[in-house]
């Protein structure tokens, strides 16, 4: 059967911490099952179906944090996981625009210098067959870019999406060929039950881009060959003179198999914006949430979460 799978890869070029632009998010949408192991050539017709007109939403979604991940609850509300004081937090909304912060911390950072979870951020979740929620997230032993800190990917499990129990290390970037940098994860559950994590890699073969790892059980991951998106659009010197042809913003790529991405399109070009996450609202529209530094001064960030809506043309 020649059934296609469509995955949208959202890439962001934005201002990072420690002299790097290292932000990306992907949103998967498995509309039909793909036979295991079958690679499907790109479909121009399918890509045309997602030709969206994007417009920024007014106001701010979350005022005390950023690096969001959005998840639609079974009751129709939207839960936004994001990075804030103390670790990974959450807020809930009936309409996807007005969010109420939920009490407590979903994933707490470890207040110990040099601990691999002294900074936790970049949440992404998958819903398991038993109804539990597994969150994958970045743990770092300090601030700064590649060569200045180690970034690794961890997981935690929850019965309700609020109370999480840490499960430990999933991708050890020091032992997977990622050069101590496996960061900004995005996880999807494939139609065959396997879990794929996309992440920004320090692997030389990725050239500062995105690689992926696959797992049968969601706990033990095998790195996949090659880069999903390769090149310096993801790791760029802070000095704008070194990257004059790469405007900051959010971009999209399309894939039919989750491994080969193409058809780059501009979603939003905006200074200070970073780390998008996308969700399908209905058959005609999608919404992207993203972080933005509204402080306006280097070294004095004031980060919030904003959004934009895309409607089919």
TrEMBL record:
It comes from the Bacteria. The chain crosses the membrane at residues 6-23. Keywords: Membrane, Transmembrane, Transmembrane helix. This is Glycosyl hydrolase family 32 N-terminal domain-containing protein. It comes from Candidatus Nealsonbacteria bacterium CG02_land_8_20_14_3_00_40_11.
């Amino acid at each position: 059967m020649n059934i296609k799978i469509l995955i949208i890869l959202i890439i962001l070029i934005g201002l990072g911490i420690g002299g790097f632009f290292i932000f990306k998010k992907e949103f998967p949408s498995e509309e039909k099952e793909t036979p295991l192991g079958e690679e499907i050539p790109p479909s121009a017709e399918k890509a045309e179906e997602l030709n969206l007109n994007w417009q920024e939403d007014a106001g701010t979604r979350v005022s005390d944090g950023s690096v969001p991940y959005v998840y639609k609850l079974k009751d129709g509300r939207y839960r936004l996981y994001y990075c804030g004081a103390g670790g990974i937090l959450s807020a809930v909304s009936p309409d996807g625009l007005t969010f109420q912060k939920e009490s407590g911390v979903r994933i707490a950072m470890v207040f110990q210098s040099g601990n691999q979870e002294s900074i936790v951020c970049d949440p992404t979740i998958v819903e398991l067959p038993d109804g539990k929620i597994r969150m994958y997230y970045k743990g770092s032993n300090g601030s700064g870019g590649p060569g200045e800190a180690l970034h690794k990917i961890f997981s935690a499990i929850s019965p309700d999406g609020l109370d999480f129990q840490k499960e430990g290390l999933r991708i050890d970037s020091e032992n997977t060929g990622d050069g101590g940098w496996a960061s900004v994860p995005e996880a999807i559950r494939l139609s065959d039950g396997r879990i794929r994590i996309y992440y920004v890699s320090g692997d030389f073969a990725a050239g500062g881009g995105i690689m992926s790892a696959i797992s049968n059980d969601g706990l033990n991951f095998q790195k996949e060959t090659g880069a999903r998106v390769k090149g310096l659009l993801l790791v760029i010197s802070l000095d704008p003179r070194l990257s004059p042809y790469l405007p900051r913003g959010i971009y999209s790529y399309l894939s039919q198999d989750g491994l080969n991405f193409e058809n780059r399109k501009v979603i939003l070009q905006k200074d200070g914006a970073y780390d998008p996450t996308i969700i399908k609202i209905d058959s005609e529209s999608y919404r992207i949430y993203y972080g933005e530094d509204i402080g306006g001064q280097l070294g004095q960030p004031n980060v919030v979460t904003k959004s934009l809506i895309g409607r089919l043309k």
